[in-house]
Write a structure and sequence with these properties.
Order of helices and strands: EEEEEEEH
Helix content: under 10%
Distance between the termini: 29 Å
Structural class: mainly beta
Number of strands: 7
Shape: globular
Length: 92
Amino acid sequence: MFGCLVAGRLVQTAAQQVAEDKFVFDLPDYESINHVVVFMLGTIPFPEGMGGSVYFSYPDSNGMPVWQLLGFVTNGKPSAIFKISGLKSGNY
């Protein structure tokens, strides 16, 4: 249903489904990533009038996950580029 692209890396299309409506991509060495592209594969569209929120998660100083809303994708906007470099350092 979704794909993820980071410059210099292979495209990821095998998201881990962690809930009925939640998918996760693992981004090793996320500290070196500046931008991430999230896109719909075109195999399963959203129901009419629906879309999906895109979040980035990284550990805080205590190792607890911090979830930051990046934006969204919809049938009418099936891909988006998100800057994550400032988020990881807390500079947002």
